[in-house]
Amino acid sequence: MKSGEMAEDTQDPGLLQNAFQSLNLPRKYWHDTLESFYKDQFNPEDDFVQHVRQTVSIPKEWVLDLIDEGKPKPAPLTPEELERAAAWAKFLTSVCDGAKVDYVYQPLGSMSTLSTRLVRLLPAGDLEDIQLVIECVELDNCASYEALSYCWGDPSVKTTVHCGGGSLHITKNLKSALLHLRDMNEERRLWIDALCINQEDMQERSQQVGIMRDIYRNASGTIVWLGEEAQNSGLGIELCEKLNEFFKDEAKDPQTPGIQLNFRTPWLPYDEDPFNPQSEQTEEGDFNKWKKKRSEERDENKDIEDSTESQPLRMNPPNVYELLALRDLASRQWFRRIWIAQELALASKATMVCGHRSISWDTFIFGFAMIFVYGNSVSGGWDKNQNFHGTLMRIRRWVHRTASVQYRHPVTLLDLLQDCRIFEATNPLDKVYALLGVAPRDSEASSIQVDYSNRVEEVYEDLARLILSSSGNLDLLSVPQSNSQLGERLPSWAPDWSHKASSRLDLVFPGGPKVIEGVPNREFAASKGSTSTPTFRDPHILVISGYFVDSIAKLSEIIQPPTVDHFQKQLLAQKLDPAEADLEAQGLASMSAYFDVMMSIEDLALDSNDKSIYPTGEPRTRAFWRTLSTDILSDDPESAELAFTSWRQAMKAPRFLKKYRVDKFSLYNYLAAVGYAVTDSMYDSDGVFLLMMRVAFHTRFAITKMGYFALVPPTTKVGDQVGLFKGGKVPLIVRQKGNQWRLVGESYVYGIMQGEAFDETRCRELEFI
What is the average pLDDT value for the chain, to the nearest integer? Predict the structure, then answer.
């Protein structure tokens, strides 16, 4: 074997990575050791070095690159490749030759018809100027075309292209897309918003947005341009293709005839981790069945040291480079655009293009879900507060549903608005207008006229009045409030859709980060299913019927979740990066803060006698855990109480340390976290109650004047009122301002969530500003 080559039977960089990771030694140690090792200046008695030399034969440079960079370096570019790359970069920002005047748009046909424009991308060779022809067409009688979905990119960095004897100014990213999509022999017809709409004509722009549904539905397909290849994007695409092929039977549409879906649940119930030999899918993804089965298996195997060690994985977990590549690909700016909810959902088929690589949307989202939704054992999951992908999957699945698929509740415009609140828009009006094309045709969307000359406050307030007047319920008032400048200019009952909510209880809208897979969504009826008939004294004053049942007497600090980026920690560990220790320290600190708040809440809610009585007549301890978890396992209280008991026992570890003032020392965070984890596992809980109380994160625990326990918005103050209102599914926290009221937000008050305290005869009209 030549020097520097790798023996086939010993090629196992994973072995080396695992060895490095298992020995928590400084990076410099490995540099020094490997330097000595490859120079044959090592101690022959060093068993580990001897083992590495005998087992892994790879070039020294490769190993040091692995340690330094965390990923293999690509092969050096040839002089010709470097020259072409430089020419490409220069060409992207160059001005086309010959065009001295700007292109002038010709007027569309009747503004009430399906008139639009199409772009003909003429064929040309590589690095030749782009030639476009723009033509006016009627959507119901035009040639086949494809629609382009992309990010405009930095508007300050413009370049030009030839179009009809003039020049068009476009962004660098769009020019890159056109160059990659251009064919050398045949022209290509495309619909591209920046080119097919005269962006300077506000009236035309409004009219074109109004027919977006027809534009994307009529297209033969939608091309998603993600940008140039970078950060090993090809590796991420290959991983998705590999996963789709390996699990091809599971990649098929799981919507069997008669299935009932709930739009507000991000993913289909599916508890199986395909990379974890201990994970098996349970019937209907039922949480309680899973817990029972897991408990039974543990009882059977409690005397076996490791009964699952020899179980084969369904598929070898992807390596760290593949994970990082897919994460970077899925984090591109395109996934954050509000417009893609419509562009992707309405597409008959969607093809994602990244540089010279392409992949179907179905293949990509299946691979993404297998890794970041179901494959927690390898990826640590995805930040569910940034669940753009789940939202896109959910909306597209709903739009393309078949007759055999039923939804438990009709999907509304309000569902879409709330679901897509996490997306970004340059123009705040687009947070509404971009969803009209996917909203149900019989919804409030049919009454909304797109008009970009309107003020944002006007549009948001009109929309709130429309939804409240037509829905018969007060679901809109459960939309979380945002602390934004625009929100301050709006009435408290009109949401600021341009701003992501800082916190949410998710009682009426349980989709998103606080859903527990396999647990059915609960439905509350605090006003006994009554109907709301709101009126408006003037455009800014909402009048609804209800009354106050209680007020806030005591409040806790905000419950902050213990957080750590497990995937990033895994990457740092495999790279032997010292930042891993910093990340771990941050996680321990957040765990410590969580302990402090939860201990204070427990002291606030429970006295020394745990058997004292709650207003409903049951023990306060039971009401306590049911409040923290919003009684999410109401159908299995025994399992829920066992999980709470385990959690409470585990909390004794940080409480003990605090009692003896160990919290004054830097070691406290570590000792408290370890003590909690060890105790929790001893009681066979494995963090179940922490999962159950996820809904409580970013809220405050409260005790009312009448002694009820509650979870309330973080902006709640002592003295705020707890109100029940006709058409409301949950109690609302409100604050008096003169003779009127301001909405604070929805709340969970244990004991009155199913109408136990509602008396319609007590209702009166109350004004909200």
Answer: 78
